[in-house]
């Protein structure tokens, strides 16, 4: 081997070793232990499971879900809803007095009302009605309503100035006798069993009777089932 060849070999070997070391530094990082987009073990914004009811078409109370597909664990079908009147792709509505946010789910229609004025607002449950998915209208039950309230007088709810109030509603006619348990047992707003596809396209809603500045007002909202899909 000539002196020139030996000089070239001495130059090539260090460069090759340097390139090998650099390629090791650029290898991909270890995968994160958490789920996609979230902290350890989960996905950010994932659904919060609702406690199961006592059957496929009966619920005990109602538990809201923040996930994109509300429903019970193990449900055979899932629902997608749309707010049709007043139309909103975010399930919201507001005016100078109140701001509404809705979360339709198979167990009930969940909502939040914000009082934008510095004065008391009242929800008059005695005059608040629901359009049921089956067609007829019904008196409205909410979180504190029990089976014994069906033929009684429901107390109004007060929303203080600049305060928010969260609750859920379902038709009073859907209440079921809980026996001696004292629990709020009611039929689901929408079934999640094999009968669910029959509810595709159904309309439902609520007419809130409210007193604002001591003046009666009615806020009407309508929703539609836009799809029922197997899970």
Walkthrough of the structure:
The protein has 231 residues and is mainly β. The protein has one domain (58-230). The protein is built from 1 helix and 15 strands; from the N terminus they run H-E-E-E-E-E-E-E-E-E-E-E-E-E-E-E. The chain has one helix spanning 3-25, and strands spanning 58-60, 77-85, 87-88, 92-94, 98-104, 109-115, 121-123, 129-131, 137-142, 157-159, 164-171, 175-176, 185-187, 203-212, 215-230. The strands form 2 sheets. Strands 2, 3, 4, 5, 6, 7, 8, 9, 10, 11, 14 and 15 form a 12-stranded antiparallel beta sheet that branches. The radius of gyration is 29 Å and the shape is globular.
Describe the secondary-structure layout.
Layout: H1 3-25, E1 58-60, E2 77-85, E3 87-88, E4 92-94, E5 98-104, E6 109-115, E7 121-123, E8 129-131, E9 137-142, E10 157-159, E11 164-171, E12 175-176, E13 185-187, E14 203-212, E15 215-230
Antiparallel strand pairs: 1-13, 2-3, 2-15, 4-5, 5-6, 6-11, 7-10, 7-14, 8-9, 8-14, 9-11, 12-13, 14-15
Which sequence of SSEs, written as H and E, runs from N to C?
Answer: HEEEEEEEEEEEEEEE
Strand content: 35-45%
For the terminal residues, how far apart are their CA atoms? 74 Å
Largest β-sheet summary: 12 strands, antiparallel
Radius of gyration based on Cα positions: 29 Å
Q: Rough shape?
A: globular
The low-confidence runs, each spanning 5 or more residues with pLDDT under 50, are 2-56
Counting DSSP H or I runs of 4 or more residues, the number of helices is: 1
How would you classify the helix and strand content by structural class? mainly beta
What helical percentage do the residues reach? under 10%
Total count of strands: 15
The overall pLDDT average reads 81
Number of domains: 1
